[in-house]
Write a structure and sequence with these properties.
The protein is α/β, with parallel strands linked by helices. Helix content is about 45%, strand content about 15%. The chain contains ten helices and eight strands. Helix 4 packs parallel to helix 6 and helix 6 crosses helix 7. The radius of gyration is 16 Å and the shape is globular. The N terminus is likely disordered.
Length: about 240
C-alpha cells in the first residue's frame, strides 16, 4: 500500500531529552464528547493553536469548521471514523473518510470492527482498514483497537492487520470504553509495529505524569482533552 508520503520510520521519543515543543507535537487535542457545541469546538481550536499541538481531533460534523479556523496554521484537523463503536459497514466508513478529507481533515482515526477481529475474520478487518486508507487519499490513518476489549493475541493481530492495510498508526482507545490507555499495551503495540508505525495512546491521559509514562513506553502521539493541564504542568515543573 502507498503511504501517502508519510514517514514510515517513526522514532521513539526520549523523555529525558524531551522539549516543550516536542511534547506539544505528540498531542492530538480531543473534543469528542457527544455534547460538544460549536463554541466548545472553537475553544478547542484556540487551545490547539496556543500550544501548537499536532492536531485537533473532532467528530466529522466539525471538520470543516476546524479546517477554516486552523487554515494557515501548523495544527492539523483529525476526524474520527466509525466512532466510537467501529460497527459501521465498511462502505460507510469509507464514505465518512472521503467526506472528512474533502472537508479538510489531514488525519483520520478509525475504529476497527472489534467483533470481526475477535471472531478471527482478519480479511474483513484488513480490507475495511485498507478502504479507509485509500479513501483518505494520503491522509494519515490511525487505527483504534479499543484495547480494553482485546486479549494480547488480538492486540498483536490488530496491529499487524493495520500495518498490512497501509495504516500509519495504531491507537489504544476511543476514550468511550470501560478502560483507556495502559502502559503495558503501548509497550506491546510498539514491540509489534514500532518504529514502522506510530503508536497513539488515548483515554485517561489527564496530566503530565500520564503523558510522560505513555511516551516512555513508546507512544508518539497522545489523544487527550487535558492539553492545557499537561502543558501547564510542564512549564510549572520546569521541564526543558
Amino acid at each position: 500500500m502507498p503511504n501517502g508520503g508519510w514517514e514510515r520510520v517513526i522514532q521513539k521519543l526520549e523523555v529525558s531529552s524531551l522539549t516543550e515543543k516536542q511534547l506539544a507535537k505528540t498531542i492530538d487535542h480531543a473534543v469528542l464528547k457527544p455534547s460538544s457545541t460549536e463554541v466548545q469546538i472553537k475553544e478547542g481550536c484556540s487551545i490547539a493553536l496556543k500550544y501548537k499541538v499536532a492536531a485537533i481531533c473532532v467528530n466529522p460534523c466539525y471538520v470543516r469548521l476546524c479546517a477554516d479556523i486552523l487554515k494557515n496554521s501548523e495544527v492539523k484537523v483529525d476526524a474520527v471514523i466509525g466512532f466510537p463503536l467501529g460497527a459501521n459497514a465498511p462502505v460507510m466508513k469509507k464514505a465518512e473518510a472521503q467526506r472528512a478529507v474533502e472537508d479538510g481533515a489531514a488525519e483520520l482515526d478509525m475504529v476497527l470492527n472489534i467483533g470481526a477481529l475477535k471472531e478471527g475474520d482478519y480479511k474483513y478487518v484488513r480490507e475495511e482498514i485498507q478502504q479507509v486508507v485509500e479513501a483518505g487519499r494520503g491522509a494519515l490513518v490511525k487505527v483504534i483497537l479499543e484495547t480494553c476489549y482485546l486479549n494480547e493475541h488480538e492486540k498483536i493481530e490488530a496491529c499487524k492487520l493495520a500495518e498490512e492495510a497501509g495504516a500509519h498508526y495504531v491507537k489504544t482507545s476511543t476514550g468511550f470504553g470501560p478502560e483507556g490507555a495502559k502502559v503495558e499495551d503501548i509497550k506491546l503495540m510498539y514491540r509489534t509495529v514500532g518504529p514502522r508505525l506510530g503508536v497513539k495512546a488515548s483515554g485517561g491521559i489527564r496530566g503530565l505524569s500520564d503523558a510522560l509514562a505513555m511516551i516512555e513506553a513508546g507512544a508518539t502521539r497522545l489523544g487527550t482533552s487535558a492539553t492545557q493541564t499537561i502543558m501547564e504542568d510542564w512549564v510549572s515543573r520546569n521541564y526543558k
